[in-house]
Amino acid sequence: MINKPVLVGIGNIQQQEKFKDLDEALILMDKATKKAIADSSKDIINYIDEIRIPKGFWKYRDPGKWISNNNNFKNNPITYITKIGVLQQHLINQAILNIQEGKINASLIVGGESRYKMIQAIKDNKEYKETSLNQNPDFYVKADADLNLDEEVKELSKMAVGYYAIMESAYRFSKNEKLLDHNKKIAKLYEEFSEIAHKNKNGWSKQKYFAKDIIKPSDKNKYQAFPYNKLHCTSWNVNQASAIIICNENIADKLGIPREQRVYPLASSENNHMISLIQRENIIDPVGLKLAAKYIKDTLISHRKSIDYYDLYSCFPIAVQMFCDSLNINLSSSTSITGGMSFAGGPLNHYVLSSTTQLIEKMRKKKNKIGLITGVSGVMTKQSFALWTNNYIDNFSFEDVTSQAKQIDKPKALSAESSGTGVIVGYTILVESNNKKAVIYAESHDGKRVILNSRNPVVIKEMENVEWVGKKITFKNGCLV
């Protein structure tokens, strides 16, 4: 007997009220869960056997058990907390596979953030309190390795923006685009994303931004890591939560869930091969990304289908561009249904749940549609693709390309030499204590990688106006000469 996984319930919550009316993340996740239950069937609570939650900024150990008890789930569901560094799509894939293999009847996947409330507490001089949940979940899921090397953290810290900005510079150079022309291009794309988010009822930003607002640093659009300003970056200071309920179609039939409410997972692929950015042979074209994309493209070809709706992960512009290249599609506003993570909101570690729920809502209004959601973990370290259809086509198929990627994509060694010559493969400029510092990734004369810095204002000014990727350089004691 075939167990058909089907998505039957979605829930989205967003709050932008005054501090006293804002909820903590636990309550946001509970409210999203209640919405997903109401969207499917009140009796779905009798069949949920597991709850999967991506870890956020919050300190709760096991919000899943609390949500289960608060909603009277009957089967004492197994609870999972998935830590940062694991693809968000992985939670959905594991739930689908468990249903398909007959291990469970239904799964709840839910995530939420309340950083907006945390910030309002600081602004209003209020105390931010979280419910104390000290019981551990049944399972913690974490990544196999750290996302960044100590050498990278020393220069770039752990904030993602610097790493993505370095990739942006390498991408710009690979396309042979002039620096200013490229910056105008990504600003125009994000202007279009802003328009989509403005019209999106689930979009965080209600203000429309134009390319001229995005490309130019200002008090409200602060310089982050050249060429990125604040409006290029994911906006995680939100009060948002999203929930998804997936079940065996036999349960959906038993509960009388309408056919038009059902959306089916068709295929998904994941790349979990972890190489730090400085050690990647090609920092903008990882093998795992290409393999995972190929699986999705081959699936579409085999079913003679094409994609109607896209939401490409958009933490920074380079992510959108790399996904477009992997799928052989044009860079355009049609690559986002939400308006992107800068404007629709990019809650830490659960945006894929948000984009998936919004895709499902959109697909329910039409027949015979295919939607694609992509995801990222780390510094474009891991990538995922997921195809959904509102008309059952075939059993869900899944491919983890990690082993294949490991065989092909080997990490480059770091140079032990602190002085020498090399070629720049990517760079960015950060602001530290009101002073600018350039961080440079280079291929040294010994064929290994090296991380350099420069605080020379003349060099930094030129780097902001003229392309330095591909330039031959000399370095001494870890600094650009």
* Biggest sheet details: 6 strands, mixed
CATH topology of the largest domain: Peroxisomal Thiolase, Chain A, domain 1
What's the quaternary structure here?
single chain
Strand content: 15-25%
Distance between the termini: 69 Å
Helix content: 25-40%
The CATH class of the largest domain, by name, is Alpha Beta
Going across the biggest sheet, name each strand in turn.
Answer: 1-8-4-2-3-5
Shape: globular
CATH architecture of the largest domain: 3-Layer(aba) Sandwich
Number of discrete domains: 2
Low-confidence region ranges: none
Give the helix/strand class.
alpha/beta
Please, what is the average pLDDT? 96
Written description of the protein model:
With 481 residues, the protein is α/β, with parallel strands linked by helices. The chain folds into two domains: 5-145 and 236-408, Thiolase/Chalcone synthase (Peroxisomal Thiolase, Chain A, domain 1, 3-Layer(aba) Sandwich), CATH 3.40.47.10; 420-480, OB fold (Dihydrolipoamide Acetyltransferase, E2P) (Beta Barrel), CATH 2.40.50.840. It contains 14 helices and 18 strands. Strand 11 (370-377) and strand 12 form a beta hairpin. The longest helix has 21 residues, at 179-199.
